[in-house]
Design brief:
171 residues, alpha/beta, six-stranded mixed sheet, 15 strands, 13% helix
Length: 171
């Protein structure tokens, strides 16, 4: 009897997890390794199955502007060293981290970003003409250069001087 109950509980747990996962991807489509959702004629990249050294996010998918990156886009991208962000990108999401890091998992200021999981990231570039973001020596800033958004975790060098005028680091 115990085996039957365990199997039933395990089956229920797996079904719950798969339904939760499906809910976050409901309505998503995939093209060239990018899983995306279209809302109000704009594209949000929700995940990327590409695991190569250089990833260029297209300016448009399905004829619509790519304007948003969801948190955890590259959650399991161990090879990515350079990411080129698109011209129309205006939103880079973050969410409360869901990692089992002991006590810090419950801290309110631990977040996941699209770059979480890019353990070899050295360089972030932004396509010319982007009105919201820019890159300085491979580091991601807001266009006005007042906020440093993302410093690549494997950026080469032993020292980095933050641009003058930066008033915030992170989101």
């Amino acid at each position: 009897m115990k085996k039957t109950i365990r199997i039933t509980v395990l089956t229920a747990l797996l079904l719950t997890l798969s339904l939760a996962s499906a809910g976050t991807m409901a309505g998503a489509k995939t093209k060239n390794g990018f899983t995306y959702k279209i809302t109000k004629n704009q594209v949000k990249i929700v995940s990327c199955s590409k695991n190569q050294k250089r990833i260029v996010i297209p300016n448009k998918i399905a004829g619509k502007k790519v304007t948003s990156l969801g948190a955890n886009v590259w959650k399991k991208s161990s090879k990515v060293q350079t990411i080129v962000l698109p011209k129309y990108l205006k939103t880079i999401e973050k969410k409360q981290a869901d990692y089992g890091w002991g006590n810090i998992a419950k801290k309110k200021n631990v977040f996941s970003t699209p770059f979480t999981g890019c353990s070899k990231l050295k360089n972030i570039k932004v396509a010319k003409g982007n009105k919201y973001f820019c890159s300085a020596k491979g580091v991601l800033y807001t266009k006005d250069k007042k906020s440093l958004i993302q410093y690549p975790c494997k950026k080469e060098g032993t020292e980095y001087i933050i641009l003058q005028g930066v008033t915030s680091i992170g989101y």
